[in-house]
Design a protein that fits this description.
This protein is α/β, with parallel strands linked by helices. It has 11 helices and 14 strands.
Length: 617
């Protein structure tokens, strides 16, 4: 790219609103103090922007550049709006550009050791102020000298500045300079014409758009006028219908009033006849009542005699009932005595069972004590000092189903590993950035010849043939977002291979229902996809492909750990067993217990370990 495309922006006084950079020693400065960040034409998408212009309009950013301007050609890669992961995006792309530039310039021999580095990441740099200033000044010089390494640029300048040996060379040099100047002017004119054409095309497009909008507005107004006219006509027709309906209702109401008046007249006549009828009936009733009164007096006398007889019979029956109640009370007391005798026998039986249970527990405690002594004796033997473990448990998910036992499982595993000599890093309920940071720090902690164990309990999903571990703040809005935020299991295994550790055991207790299964058919519904272990690695999933790991064997299961973890904790305490023997024992026991409750859970083991490794010698 010609240096004529770049223009240096005047430095502005640094204020609280300006973009800043924080150096390795904690000091900071405004970016506009460094002319490199005020050069136009460095943003490929808009050549009128500078780095500072772009930084002010993004939420996060990172810029990667070559590490040695003296020997390396100039390239750059700016990535933005990657939620803090911008450096991971910028660095490999910068490296690709640098390799391509070296090939274009034919500098493969001279550019040995050239690679990209992160110059600035969200306002921070790992460089000192002096080194930062030196590099950005060198980049600006490269921008002005065709992007070539400074070393080759100096050689070209020195060669041109040497005295000419003869007049012919002077003529050729003058003609070359003139041709270069003509080319520069022609290129400037071409750029200017292209910009004017672009401005004209934009103006024509804008006028066409305005004309189109005006026509649409006129059409809309005409449609509104027609709609309003139709609405008025509809209202007029509705009013006419309401008028006719009101006339019809009034006629019906008049006819109803006439009918009611006629009915009232008939009802009055009927009431008069009814009153006469009632009066005749009343006279007849009075006569009848008198006859009944006489008959009733005779009946009352007969009833009095009958009541006296009934009274005597009731007294006799009451005496019989009292005797029956006394007999029943006696029988109830006898039943209570028998019940008390049975209760005493039951209490004696329960007491005997408690005594037997206490004796059994005491015997089990003695066996456990002897086993503990054996383990302590085994632990007293020398253990490798280079044993490291990263243990992660995620329960408290924000946007998907929370888990119950993952954190408790992680804590139990961490404690047991520490007891057998591992240097344990325990992390719980990690967000995306925290989880990625934990993996980076753990990778830096281990080295060649170490024995490493990685344990993860939480949500995990398979995407195609890859498995991902889910941080607690993953929203799962779409497939790409899940792949960006989640942690590929293969990345962790590759990190251990890269560090050349002697033995890696990865334990993944993440075979649960897929929390994002409604999002895409590409995501598995449950369980994890089969994986491949590298040499020196052993991987165990708590359940096989398409299976779900069991946390509780029944609603009354009070164990704080999931089935897979509780069995592993028990088996790893047995001294003298190799790790592969322990994992196979765990698998057999998990299968047995799962089938006892009608479930199928077969832990999957992938073993490429060479040699023998133990938790307890």
């Amino acid at each position: 790219m010609s240096c004529l495309l770049f223009h240096v922006c005047a430095n502005a006084e640094c204020s609280s609103f300006d973009s800043k950079v924080k150096f390795a020693d904690g000091s900071q400065a405004c970016l506009n103090e460094f002319e490199f960040f005020t050069v136009k034409g460095v943003i490929d998408q808009d050549l009128s922007l500078t780095f500072i212009n772009k930084i002010k309009n993004v939420s996060s950013y990172a810029i990667a550049t070559p590490n040695n301007p003296e020997a390396c050609p100039y390239v750059k890669q700016m990535s933005w709006d990657w939620s803090g992961s911008d450096a991971f995006q910028a660095l490999p792309k910068c490296q690709d550009k640098l390799a391509q530039k070296i090939r274009e310039l034919g500098l493969s021999d001279q550019a040995q050791g050239c690679k990209c580095q992160v110059l600035i990441d969200n306002g921070r740099t790992t460089l000192t102020r002096e080194k930062f200033s030196e590099l950005t000044s060198s980049y600006k010089v490269q921008l002005s000298n065709g992007l070539s390494p400074l070393k080759s640029t100096k050689y070209a300048v020195d060669t041109i500045s040497k005295p000419a040996k003869n007049t012919a060379d002077d003529v050729l040099l003058a003609e070359k300079s003139k041709l270069e100047e003509d080319l520069r002017i022609a290129k400037e004119n071409e750029i200017k014409l292209q910009q004017e054409k672009l401005d004209f095309d934009r103006k024509v497009a804008r006028e066409a758009e305005e004309k189109k909008l005006l026509l649409e507005k006129l059409k809309l107004e005409e449609n509104l006028r027609l709609a309003k006219s139709n609405e008025i006509e509809a209202q007029r027709a509705a009013l006419e219908r309401e008028k006719q309906e009101a006339i019809r209702v009034a006629q019906l109401k008049l006819e109803e009033n006439l009918r009611i008046a006629k009915n009232n007249e008939i009802e009055a006549q009927r009431a008069a006849l009814e009153r006469e009828k009632q009066e005749a009936i009343r006279a007849a009733q009075l006569k009848l009542e008198e006859s009944l009164r006489i008959a009733k007096n005779a009946e009352i006398e007969a009833q009095r005699a009958a009541l006296e007889r009934e009274k005597q019979e009731a007294i006799r029956l009451a005496q019989l009932k009292l005797e029956e109640e006394k007999l029943k009370t006696l029988q109830d007391e006898q039943a209570k005595v028998l019940n008390l005798l049975r209760q005493n026998e039951e209490l004696k039986r329960q007491q005997q069972e408690r005594l037997l249970a206490d004796a059994k527990r005491e015997a089990e405690a003695k066996l456990a004590l002897e086993e503990s002594k054996k383990q302590q004796a085994a632990l007293a033997k020398p253990l490798p000092t280079n044993r490291y473990a990263l243990v992660i448990g995620n329960n408290n998910y924000k946007d998907v189903q929370k888990l119950d036992t993952a954190v408790e499982d992680a804590k139990s595993i961490a404690l047991s590993l520490a007891q057998v000599g591992y240097k344990v890093t325990l992390k719980t309920d990690l967000k995306e950035k925290e989880m990625k940071s934990a993996f980076r720090n753990f990778k830096a902690q281990v080295s060649s010849g170490d024995e490493v164990l990685f344990y993860y309990a939480g949500h995990g999903v398979q995407f195609g043939n890859s498995n991902y571990l889910i941080p607690i703040d993953t929203a799962g809005e779409n497939e790409e977002q899940i792949k960006d935020d989640a942690i590929p299991l293969q990345r962790i295994l590759d990190d251990m291979t890269e560090q050349k550790v002697k033995f890696t055991l990865a334990m993944i207790d993440a075979c649960r229902d897929n929390p994002f299964k409604k999002l895409s058919r590409n995501l598995g519904t449950r369980g994890l996809a089969p994986t491949n272990a590298a040499t020196g690695q052993m991987i165990i999933f708590s359940a096989g492909t398409g299976q779900q790991a069991i946390d509780k064997l029944s609603p009354n299961d009070k164990d704080r750990n999931g089935l897979f973890t509780r069995i592993f904790l028990k088996e790893m305490q047995k001294p003298g067993l190799r790790v592969d023997e322990i994992l196979r024992n765990v698998r057999n026991e998990v299968v047995k217990l799962a089938r006892s409750v009608g479930q199928e859970q077969v832990p999957a083991i992938y073993d490429q370990v060479v040699g023998e490794f133990y938790f307890i010698n």
